Amino acid sequence: MSKILTRFGDGYKVELTEDEVKADIEEGCNDAASRAGIEPLARDEQEHIFEMFKNQDTLVGIERGREVVMTYDGMSSKIRRAHIVIDRVQSLQVFERALGADTLELSHIDYSFKPCKPINGFELPDLDLLLNSTVAPVYYGAMPNLGLYSQPDGPCPNPADLLPLGKIDEARQAYEEAIEHAVSDIVFVASAMYEAGVDGINIDTVGAAGDADFLTALKATEILKEKYPAMGIEMGMAGEFVLGMHGNLSWRGVKLAGLYPQDQVRLAQQAGATIFGPAINIVTSGTLPWNVARSVTFCKACSEVSEIPVHANLGMGVCGIPLTLTVPVDALSRATKAHVEICRLDGL
After folding, report:
1. Across the strands, what pairs with 106?
2. Cα atoms in the Cβ-side hemisphere of radius 13 Å centred on 112
3. Which of 75, 184, 207, 287 is the most buried (most CB within 10 A)?
4. What is the Cα–Cα distance from 166 to 333, expressed in whole angstroms?
5. DSSP 62
6. How buried is residue 286: exposed, middle or buried, by Cβ count under 10 Å (0-12/13-18/19+)?
7. Binning pLDDT at 50, 70 and 90, where does residue 2 land?
8. Span 217-235, pLDDT tens digits
9. Higher pLDDT, 315 or 236
10. CATH 3.20.20 residue window(s) in the chain
11. Where are the alpha helices (DSSP H) in 250-328?
12. How far apart are alpha carbons 230 and 213 in whole angstroms?
C-alpha cells in the first residue's frame, strides 16, 4: 500500500498508510466528541478530510464559490517579524494592496489592553493615518491578558503565589479584582478608538488566564455594545476549553469553567460579539489528520449553534496548524480547506 506524506503537530514529516490516516481521522473526531459532548463527523466528512491528505500536491485549495473573508490578530507586527524595516501603517497598506487582505488590524507590539491604555494618545494618530490611506475595514486589537494585573506587574495579589499557600478564597478575590481593572482598560481603549473612527475591536486570546479572563471579555463586550450598539466586536479565544482558574465564576447563570466552543459562542453572542473565533489546541505528538479532524469536529459544532459569524483561529498551534514558527503551506492549506468546507465557516 502506498504511503501518505503528512506531518505531526510540531511540523515534523511522517509517512502513514491510508489505513493509518483513516484511523487517525476517526480517532480525532471521537476525541473531540467525547470531550465536548458533541457528535463526531459523519463518514462522508471524514472521507473528505482523508481525500485532502491523500492528495499529495503541496497546496490544496478551497472549492470555487466557498471562499471566505479573513480577519487577523497582531497584524501590525507580522511583516516586521521577517526583519523588514517598515512601520505599522505601511505594513497594513502592504497587507491590503499587495496581499489582498479583507480587513486590517492596528495593534501595539505589546498586544494587551493594559499597556495600550497609557499610550492611547499615541495610537490615535496612527489610526488616523491608517483610516485615511486604506479602504478595508480597520480593527484595533489586543488581549485582556489578566496576568498583567497580578503583582509584581500589576496591582492585584498574585493567585499563583496564594494558591500554593492554600489561600483559595484570597486567590479568587484577586482574580475578581483583576477582572474589574481589565474591563475598565478594555472599555477605555476601545471607546477611544471607536470614537476616533475604527471600524471594530478585536478582543483576542480570550480565556488565556482561564474563566476570569473569559468573564472579563464578556463584561467588556456587554458594556461596549450598550455604549455603542453599532460597534463590531470580534472575540477570539485562546483555547478549546475554558480553564477553571477561579472555578466559581458565572455569567448570566452559566458557569464558565469547562465550556467548549459550542457553549462559548452562545455567551459571546449574548454579550454582543459580532464575530466569534474558536481556537482548538494542537497536540504536537498527534498527526495532522488526527489534529485537523479533531479541530473540525469542535468547530462544526460551534458553527451549527452560532447566530453570529464564526472565524476559526487558524494560526500557529491552533485548529490543526503545526506549532512551528514557519507554518508549512501543505499543512496550512489542508487545515484551511477542511474547516471552511465542512464547518461552513464565515471566515478565518
Report:
1. 140
2. 15
3. 207
4. 47
5. P
6. buried
7. confident
8. 999 999 999 999 999 999 9
9. 236
10. 64-277
11. 261-271, 288-305
12. 24
Residue 199 burial (10 A CB sphere; 0-12, 13-18, 19+): middle
Indicate if the alpha-carbon torsion angle 39, 42, 47, 49 is positive or negative. Answer: negative
**Residue whose C-alpha is closest to residue 258's, from 247, 268, 267:** 247
C-beta atoms surrounding 255 within 10 Å: 15
Q: What's the CA gap between 7 and 196, in Å, rounded?
A: 45
Q: What does pTM read for this prediction?
A: 0.95
Share of the chain above pLDDT 70, in %: 100
Are 235 and 217 a contacting pair, CB within 8 Å?
Answer: yes
Picking from 272, 288, 325, the residue whose alpha carbon sits closest to that of residue 6 is: 288
CA angle at residue 226 from 242 to 145, to 5 degrees? 35
> pLDDT higher for 162 or 325?
162
What is the CATH T-level fold of the domain 64-277, as seen in this structure? TIM Barrel (3.20.20)
Spell 160-188 as b/e; 16+ CB within 10 A means b. eebeeeeeeeebbbbbebbbebbbbbbbe
Residue 128: helix, strand or coil by DSSP?
helix
Evaluate whether 303 touches 342 at the Cβ level (below 8 Å): no
- Sign of the dihedral defined by the CA atoms of residues 190, 195, 196, 199, in that order: positive
- Whose cell is 477553571? That residue is 244
CA pair distance 257, 259, nearest whole angstrom:
6
Does the structure show a pLDDT above 70 at 294? yes
| Amino acid 165: pLDDT | 96
What pLDDT score does 78 carry? Answer: 87
**Per DSSP, which regions of 90-129 are E strands?**
104-106
- The per-residue pLDDT for 226 is 98
Q: Cβ(231)–Cβ(201) under 8 Å?
A: yes
User: What gap in Å lies between CA 254 and CA 171, rounded to an integer?
Assistant: 21
Mean pLDDT of 2-31: 97
Per-residue pLDDT at 142 exceeds 90 = yes
Single-letter code of the amino acid located at 213: D
